[in-house]
Structure formats: C-alpha cells, structure tokens
C-alpha cells in the first residue's frame, strides 16, 4: 500500500471528485466480499433483491437487520465514487479493501442522488437509501486516519464521500464498464 495522503492532499483532490458526471456515469469496479476481510473483483456479477451482489456476505447477515433478523435491504449494496477511492487508495489495486461493492464514476452527493434516486446499471436497477455510510476502524487501518476524517466530517460527510447504500429494485447483471444512468 502506498503512503497515506494527508488531509491537505485529500482536500486538494476534492475538485476532481466533484467534477464527476451528474446524470450518466460508468461502473469502474465490482467487489464481492464472500466473508469478512475477503475480496473478489469480478468483471461482472448478478445482483438481486433476494441476494444483493451474488456471493457477497450481505445475504448471510450484516450489521443492520430487519425485525425478523434478515439482512436489511437498505444496506444491500455499498457504493463509492470511483474518483474518491482513486484519490484515497492512490492505486487501482488498493480499491477493494474499502469494502464497497460498486465503484462508480458519478456524482453521488445528496444534491444529485438523494435517497429514492434510482440508477440503472447494466440490466439492474438500484435505489439509493437514506442509511449513512461511514468510515470505520478498518478504513483507518487501510487508508489512514486523515482519509477517514476526510470522508466522515465536514464537507466529506455533507457530500457523502465515504459512499452510499442502495437496495436492488430490479434484478440484473452488472459489468465493469457499464453505464450508470439516473432514472427520472
């Protein structure tokens, strides 16, 4: 892993993150987490209402569950802006440890993709939820304390730089390079 960037270096990269396309982006990476700490990076995968990202541990249970103990659909898929993880991780090979399922080159700030926004990716459709996504101790370990502060506080929190959660509303397949389009 390359050296961690300072808060000042990260803040200097904010204009590039904010220049992400608003209405049509690109899926730049897919990560499946079969178990805690494990990462696979397929070129394509199925996503579904029943299982989330195929092979991901979400279906086995996660930090948020429904009253009956099932994994909560509001945290089914983790998404992060590709430009943001690119800045933080510095090398493409270091994106997967972030633990997000989809890395998209698209503006995912609340002003552009508020909860309820639907995105078409490949043949699937997902809907942004209102569950906050925050950096944690693992994020600090992987990318440094300054990166976690950058995404979790001030502008980073307001702009949802750590990412967003979504639920599947239409089963389908997604492939790296697919267009990501806001559905009006």
Strand and helix layout:
Blueprint: H1 7-12, H2 14-18, E1 24-30, E2 44-48, E3 52-53, E4 77-81, H3 82-89, E5 102-105, E6 118-121, E7 124-128, H4 137-143, H5 145-152, H6 154-158, E8 164-170, E9 172-175, E10 179-183
Parallel strand pairs: 4-5
Antiparallel strand pairs: 1-5, 1-10, 2-3, 2-9, 4-8, 6-7, 6-10, 7-8
Structural summary, described in words:
The chain starts with 6 loop residues before the first helix and ends with a strand. It has one domain: M1 Pyruvate Kinase, Domain 3. The mean pLDDT is 94. It is globular and about 40 Å long. Helix 4 packs across helix 5. Strands 1-5-4-8-7-6-10 form a 7-stranded mixed β-barrel. It contains 6 helices and 10 strands; from the N terminus they run ααββββαβββαααβββ. The protein has 184 residues and is of the alpha+beta class. The longest helix is centred in the middle third of the chain and has 8 residues, at 82-89. Helix 3 links the parallel strand 4 and strand 5.
The major beta sheet can be summarized as: 7 strands, mixed, barrel
Tell me, what is the CATH class? Mainly Beta
| DSSP strand count | 10
- How does CATH name the architecture? Beta Barrel
Radius of gyration: 15 Å
- Order of strands across the main sheet: 1-5-4-8-7-6-10
What portion of residues is helical?
10-25%
- Beginning-to-end CA distance, first to last residue: 40 Å
What coarse outline follows from CA principal-axis ratios? globular
| The CATH homologous superfamily | PK beta-barrel domain-like
Give the H and E element order.
Answer: HHEEEEHEEEHHHEEE
Query: Which secondary-structure class do the elements indicate?
Result: alpha+beta
């Amino acid at each position: 892993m390359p050296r961690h960037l300072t808060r000042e270096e990260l803040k200097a990269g904010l204009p590039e993150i904010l220049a992400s396309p608003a209405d049509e982006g690109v899926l730049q990476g897919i990560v499946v987490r079969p178990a805690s700490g494990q990462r696979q990076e397929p070129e394509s995968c199925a996503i579904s209402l029943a299982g989330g990202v195929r092979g991901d541990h979400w279906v086995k249970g996660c930090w948020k569950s429904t009253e009956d103990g099932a994994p909560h659909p509001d945290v089914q898929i983790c998404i992060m802006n590709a430009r943001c993880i690119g800045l933080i991780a510095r090398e493409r090979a270091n994106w997967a440890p972030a633990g997000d399922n989809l890395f998209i080159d698209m503006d995912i700030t609340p002003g552009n993709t508020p909860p309820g926004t639907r995105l078409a990716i490949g043949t699937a459709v997902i809907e942004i939820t209102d569950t906050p996504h925050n950096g944690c101790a693992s994020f600090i370990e992987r990318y440094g304390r300054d990166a976690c502060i950058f995404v979790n506080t001030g502008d980073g929190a307001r702009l949802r730089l750590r990412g967003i959660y979504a639920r599947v509303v239409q089963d389908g397949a997604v492939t790296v390079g697919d267009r990501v389009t806001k559905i009006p």
